[in-house]
Amino acid sequence: MSFVTGLRCRECGRRYPTEALHVCDFCFGPLEVDYDYERIAASVSAASIAAGPRTIWRYRDLLPVDDATPVDLGAGFTPLHRADRLAAELGLGELWIKDDTANPTGSFKDRVVSVALTKARQLGFKVAACASTGNLANSVAAHAARAGMTSIVLIPHDLEEAKVTMTAVYGGTVVAVRGSYDDVNRLCAELASEHPSWAFVNVNVRTYYSEGSKTLAFEIAEQLDWRAPDHVVVPIASGSQLTKVAKGFGELAKVGLIDPSPIRVSGAQAAGCAPVATAFASGADAIAPVKPKTIAKSLSIGNPADGWYALDTIRRSGGACAAVTDDEVLDGIRLLARTEGIFAETAGGVTIATLAKLAAGGQVRRDERVVALVTGHGLKTVEALSGTVGPTATIGPTLADFDAAVGDDVSNGASR
Ligand SMILES: *Cc1c(COP(=O)(O)O)cnc(C)c1O
Ligand SMILES: [Zn+2]
């Protein structure tokens, strides 16, 4: 059973069938999946969801997949950790970390790819393709292998080693392009029109792909006992995730699973690629593209497809958007690891450092229930930390060496 009523242009409202379509023929606006929320409200409950699998597929009635068997590696239902030690350091009250490092390929992209390839397979596609800053590549290659589909993945040539290895190991075709992500993306737009028989995750099936990000909102609300947070802090690359997290909370209110209450949505970017934060700060109405230069490669999209919608979502919700330097990103990674035992990739460092900045500036408040999205695992970007963390000491295998190297305060359990 499906509650999808079709696709609808976000700008002019024209309707389209649920095929591999992503832009409106009339106004070039992006297409959105539309659902029959009254029927969903009548048939979906907290109990029916709780009876589902412990993955994103427990929310399938709010996903655009009809009865298709999911392409499933177990994405989603990741931990939501109460983060009191981090909250204390930042001067915040009720703080939670949504830990998407726990996904099958180590990033939130498994949510969107699981949905996109499920729909692609249902539509009859045999080839899954994408342009990626790294995490999408990992996830498309893995889920295509799982689905028995061919994968063709295009990445910038200078990605982190772990992300290249983690893509290539699944046996698909991986093409490194000499250029930035924005160059790769332009090439993919050309390839997509040459090869309409490929499911291009971030082109012709993007409408379905982006719906997967709503599951972050669904899980957060369910894990908070069907209460909404007051404020969520979300990293921005294309801006899709941020926009869809807001849509997800809106849908839960529409179908009566949470009370309709205002939720502030704030965006996090790296200063070396901050087109949305820059527009937010200047009050601009358009996003000016930038040339990315930051260690947060998974967020390095200089010309974000959904940047304007993300900015609009942030402004309407009363949230903020800020950017942090690469040094602050590394501080954010170490702070989260030290206080909460969660090792995030550079994108997670961006979120935590931005949260710290917004907390210090009073834009994230002590009286709010705050959720910060940590979207990728630290092992993906270990080189970012090289030279900054390592052994406390290197010693010979003797007690004397150990005692000389490790002080009494540590031996006595004094915390840092
Ligand atoms: C892709 C990605 C994001 C942001 O995704 P968009 O929807 O493009 O804004 C955030 N964090 C990580 C780790 C990612 O890989
Ligand atoms: Zn239109």
Blueprint of the fold:
Elements: E1 4-9, E2 15-16, E3 31-35, H1 37-43, H2 46-50, E4 80-82, H3 84-90, E5 94-99, H4 109-122, E6 127-131, H5 135-147, E7 150-156, H6 161-168, E8 173-177, H7 181-194, E9 198-200, H8 206-209, H9 214-223, E10 231-235, H10 240-254, E11 264-270, H11 275-282, H12 307-317, E12 321-324, H13 326-340, H14 346-360, E13 369-374, H15 399-405, H16 408-411
Helix pairs in contact: 4-5, 5-6, 9-10, 10-12, 11-12, 13-14
The protein binds pyridoxal-5'-phosphate and zinc ion.
Can you give keywords for this protein?
six-stranded mixed β-sheet, alpha/beta, Rossmann fold, binds pyridoxal-5'-phosphate, 16 helices, binds zinc ion, 416 residues
Structure description:
- The chain is of the alpha/beta class.
- The chain has a domain at 80-106 and 210-385: Rossmann fold (3-Layer(aba) Sandwich).
- It contains 16 helices and 13 strands.
- It has a 6-stranded mixed beta sheet, with helices on both faces. Strands 8-7-6-9 form a 4-stranded parallel beta sheet. Strands 2-1-3 form a 3-stranded antiparallel beta sheet, with no helix packed on it.
- The longest helix has 15 residues, at 240-254.
- The protein binds pyridoxal-5'-phosphate and zinc ion.
- Pyridoxal-5'-phosphate binds at residues 107-109, 135, 235-241, 298-299, 345, 347, 375-376.
Instruction: Report the portion of residues in β strands.
Output: 15-25%
Rg (CA only) = 21 Å
Report, as a whole number of angstroms, the end-to-end distance. Answer: 54 Å
Q: Write down the overall geometry.
A: globular
Percent helix among the residues?
25-40%
CATH class of the domain at 80-106 and 210-385: Alpha Beta
Beta-strand segment tally: 13
| H-E order | EEEHHEHEHEHEHEHEHHEHEHHEHHEHH
User: Averaging pLDDT over every residue, what do you get?
Assistant: 95
Low-confidence stretches at least 5 residues in length (pLDDT < 50)? none
CATH architectural name of the domain at 80-106 and 210-385: 3-Layer(aba) Sandwich
Largest sheet: 6 strands, mixed
Number of helices: 16
Named once each, the bound ligands are:
pyridoxal-5'-phosphate, zinc ion
User: And the CATH topology of the domain at 80-106 and 210-385?
Assistant: Rossmann fold
Instruction: List the strand order in the largest sheet.
Output: 4-5-13-10-11-12
The computed structural class is alpha/beta
